[in-house]
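Progress note, project year one: complex with SN-glycerol-3-phosphate.
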Amino acid sequence: MIVVNFKACVESLGKKGLTLAKICEKVAQESKKEIVVCPQTPDLCLVSKEVSIPVFSQHIDPVDPGSRTGHITLESVRSYATGTLINHSEKRMKIADIEYLVKKCRNFGLTSIVCTNNIEVSMACSLLTPDYIAIEPPELIGGDISVTSASPEIVEDSVKKIKKINPRVKVLCGAGVKTGKDVKKALELGTEGVLLASGVVKAEDPEKALRDLVSGI
Ligand code: G3P
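Model obtained:
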């Protein structure tokens, strides 16, 4: 699985985000590989109506609906998103909030991807039984060196330790992933896919970048 996080980039905002999502859909259909998009929250409705590939939220707040202001509830995104990222390094949460959201996702049938920054946090989060853990060393996020080349041992060790604690949890890796070679290496290290952003969102030719990425599966 390739998960493309649109982040809050100008290149993925509004109509540009929709164009990007349609490119992801086209490449997913042609290659018959699974590509998931995480558009910016205000674009979830727009994108989910226009593409048939899975659309995930980038974040959900750990709150129930009610008299709150400015929160993103699971209830508000579930008409558009079939899953969500939780605890991205750029939107960190407390372990109690992660636990609350993983459980809530399970109850509402949403796929949960808990992002983690190191092996210890990955091990702790695997006890919560999210659908996926995505290990992303923060110092490599947005860079040009893939985690699979810079720190392959972190990916491999995370997979081993997560699976030992909870074999039901699937593992992704991310940070600096840009090419099919990086994806191939991620799979060789035991993951079930990658989570990436700039390699597609900021690519000069996102379609070409995606074709190269899926070639690694
Ligand atoms: O959510 C994916 C992200 O944190 C990795 O970003 O730009 O290194 O692919 P990037």
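The mean pLDDT is 98.
Strands lie at 2-5, 35-38, 56-57, 83-86, 111-116, 132-135, 170-174, 194-196.
No further modelling is planned for this target in the current period.
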